[in-house]
Known about the structure:
Layout: H1 2-8, H2 10-20, H3 33-42, H4 51-67, H5 83-94, H6 103-111
Helix pairs in contact: 3-4, 4-5, 5-6
Amino acid sequence: xxxxxxxxxxxxxxxxxxxxxxxxxxxxxxxxxxxxxxxxxxxxxxxxxxxxxxxxxxxxxxxxxxxxxxxxxxxxxxxxxxxxxxxxxxxxxxxxxxxxxxxxxxxxxxxx
Length: 112
C-alpha cells in the first residue's frame, strides 16, 4: 500500500527532490543534510523536527542507500531514491504522538 502511494506521487517527489538538490555540475543531483533541513523548514516541519532528529533521519537514509549500493552514499549524499524513505521516517516522527493514526495514514497526512 505504501509502495503504491509513493509510486503515484513519484512525479511530485521528483520535483521536490530537484527543488532542494545540490548539483555542482560534476555529480548527480543529491541532497545533503542542509537540503533536508531546508525542506523541513519550508514545509513547516522544523518545529516538530529539530536539527538533531533531522540529521539522524538523513544519516540513516544515507546508510540505507549505502547498504544497497547507492552511488553517492559514501560521500554522505542522498539520492532521489532515498527521498521516499526519508519522508516515511519524517511522517512517523512528526505524527508519533498520534498513536491512533496508522503508520500509512501518517504518511498520507504528511502529503496532505
